[in-house]
């Protein structure tokens, strides 16, 4: 069973965020709590942690803007 990676709602008025950078490559083994990507919201960069351990599969593209809740990858 895989765990989806989605754009989180980090602030009350947040509706979208820019995926700045993946911190680990596609197919990498990650641990729960490990920083896996950087997200920009309202000119503030946030490091986002992995919600689970497993193999990261990336579907989101660096530099793209995504709405809150959009799936940008998964951990399987």
| Major sheet characteristics | 4 strands, antiparallel
Please tell me the total number of domains.
Answer: 1
What is the helix content? under 10%
Task: Give the oligomer, counting copies of the same chain as homo and different chains as hetero.
Answer: single chain
Number of strands: 8
Round the Cα radius of gyration to an integer and report it: 12 Å
CATH architecture: Beta Barrel
Characterise the protein shown here:
The protein is an all-beta fold. It has a single domain, classed as RNA polymerase II/Efflux pump adaptor protein, barrel-sandwich hybrid domain (OB fold (Dihydrolipoamide Acetyltransferase, E2P)). 0% of the residues lie in helices and 51% in strands. It has no helices and eight strands. It has strands spanning 3-6, 16-22, 29-30, 35-41, 44-49, 54-58, 65-67, 71-75. The strands form two sheets. A four-stranded antiparallel beta sheet has the order 1-8-6-3, with no helix packed on it. A four-stranded antiparallel beta sheet has the order 5-4-2-7, with no helix packed on it. Strand 4 and strand 5 form a beta hairpin. The chain is globular and about 30 Å long. The mean pLDDT is 97.
List the helices and strands and how they pair.
Blueprint lengths: L2 E4 L9 E7 L6 E2 L4 E7 L2 E6 L4 E5 L6 E3 L3 E5 L1
Antiparallel strand pairs: 1-8, 2-4, 2-7, 3-6, 4-5, 6-8
């Amino acid at each position: 069973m895989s765990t989806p990676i989605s754009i989180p709602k980090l602030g009350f008025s947040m509706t979208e965020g820019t995926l700045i950078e993946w911190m680990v490559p596609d197919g990498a083994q990650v641990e729960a709590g490990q920083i896996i990507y950087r997200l920009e919201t309202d000119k503030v960069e946030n490091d986002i942690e992995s919600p689970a351990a497993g193999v990261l599969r990336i579907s989101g593209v660096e530099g793209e803007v995504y709405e809150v809740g959009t799936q940008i990858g998964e951990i399987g």
